[in-house]
Amino acid sequence: MKALINITNFHEAYDILAGSKYYYEIMNNINSYIRNIRSVNDLDKLLKNSSFLLPHGEKVVEMSVDIAKALNLSNKQIEVVSISARYHDSAYAFYPQEIQDTLNLHNESQLQAILAHPYISAELVGALFQSKEVFYTILAHHELFSGDGFPYKFKKDNIPLESAILGIVDFYYTLTDKHHFFNPFTREEVIMCLYQNINILYSESLFYEFIRSLRKKIWSEESHFIEIDRKLSAWRNLKKESLIDYHSVYNRKNRKSVSNFENTLKQIVKKDDLIKWSII
To answer: How far is residue 121 from each of residues 24, 73, 137, 138, 139, measured CA to CA in Å?
Structure first.
């Protein structure tokens, strides 16, 4: 597989991983597997060893492509979003199971491994598809509107739109899906997190497109969202007053769960602090 040597060739990942006790194991796994990855089918076979990676990628693809189409991205851009969304976490296929089973973001070795995953995924998938667009989309999918993301702390319009789309959908599913890393939050908690941090985590316009897509995909299928759906039936042309009304109702009925999530949120968005659970 021809590496995208002019872009990174894993050098930045090496630098981040250098102090981690997992450095040699991860890099040995990469060097062993990379020689056997010659096609998309080869990569899929590797990812099937994980119960999380392909199912997570497929969920992220579906909603990311829906948002990309709604935002009138070109066919080429939509293809980039689709590829990037499906394979954005491919790096974890090379990581030891210990990291998933005992993840602790205060453990420097584990944190270094987690922070390296966009570089490794971007290089692997970008090289496989020979696409710099795919490379950059995956590399920047943990950047945040405020500039508090990683790896480069891009902000606002400096973040590729394809990356921002992938980012908000990945944020949602990472925090709500069941996996080994941590106990998931509820959908309501994550929606409130995103709403309360419009133009901090992601732009206002992207948030509303995300909600439109989520409403179409999930809320119409579940009876307990009927009341929420009634209040928010016109998301595309939503006035802020109706969302604030929902916000106040939610806080009255679910104050404890919102408060618990806000404590985590303070850690997620604190300036110069590490982006917590959403960095997975």
So the answer is: 17, 23, 11, 7, 8
